[in-house]
Every structure is written in C-alpha cells, then in structure tokens.
Amino acid sequence: MKVVIAGAGSVGSSIAKELLSHHHEVLLIDEKPEVVGRSGLLGAHWLIGDACELTTLKDARLEEADVMVSATGDDKVNLVVSLLAKSEFGVARTVGRVNNPKNDWMFDDSWGVDVAVNTPRLMTALVEEAVEVGDLVRLLTLQTGVASMVEFTVPSDSPLTGRTLGSIDWPADTTVTAILRDDAPITPSRDDVIEPGDELFFICTIAAEDQLR
Question: Could you read off the pLDDT of 135-147 as tens digits, one per residue?
C-alpha cells in the first residue's frame, strides 16, 4: 500500500515508522529539509515542499496513493490537503489529524476527510473507558461521523449478567464486535454468556448509539 503523509513532525514520523515496519510504501511531505536527517526513518521517501500546493502533490504522484494522511500541527493545512487529495487526485482514503477539538466538526466528507483523528478526544475517551463502569463510552467516530465504536463495562449488578448475547434485543445497526474478559479478547457469538466486568465493544450508527445508551 502506498501512503503519503503530509507533516513529518512527531505524529507524522511515528505513523510513518509504524507503516514502514508493516512493509508499506511511505512518502513524507514537509517544508523543512532538516526533518529528513533527524527523522531516522529508513526506507521512507521524501518530498520537500508545501503540501497545500497542487504542484507539490503532483510531484508526489498523489493519484497513485492508496491513503493520504494529513498529520501537520495546523488544522487548516490538514483540511486543505485532505480536500485536494480527494477532489483533485481521487485518493480512496484520507485521514486528517484534528489538533483543536473545536475544529472537529469540519473534518468530514465536505472537506474530503474520510477519517478524523482527534487525539485529545481519543485520550479523553480512553480515560473514561478506564474508569467508567456501567456507562457507554464512545472510543472512535468512523466513516465521517456515520458510525462509532463504543465500549460498555458490565457492572456487577447489571441485568445483562448471565444472559447470552443472542438473547438480547440490541438496537438496529448495532453489532457486538468483541468482548474483553480478564484482559483477553473474545470473538463474540450468540451463545456467549455475559459476565460482570466484561468490556463489550460495539460498532453502531450514531442514532443507534443513543438507543444503545
């Protein structure tokens, strides 16, 4: 898979390192030539330039990319790069980094963003997921706000305890994707019996999330 990353700061470099370790082809775009030498990324390709410029994206041969990742520290840049990647080059999948949570609402398909990664919000969700028992916690928003991944930790006095997954009338557009029990992931089946302390993970639409809650 060919992945182009705009922004070779700590976030962009970390993404590139992970992708390279999984044997993907990675091209990083950054305005600062010095980032190449200090990145320590072996096997990555580099392009020095402004990712908001069409000429730079043409030089990157963005039309050949499978994924465009906008990982700069500037939300305006990340939106523009995502929009250009989608509208001008037809990139199949775009991922945009959200730096300011107040700008989260703009990172959708109207700006060409397929997946928005809001690090502060994700960290908040993970904190809540670690301490909240009996509350539904949203972990991720998927498909430009259409669906989400949520988690529910079953309290000891829950009426769900002792019931099988198949016996519960879950809301429409809701799928139980995993159970985490004693730190071990379980692939769910209709016959699995829910136990106190189980962490249930769901993929559901936003509307179904409210019903599930």
Answer: 788 777 775 568 8
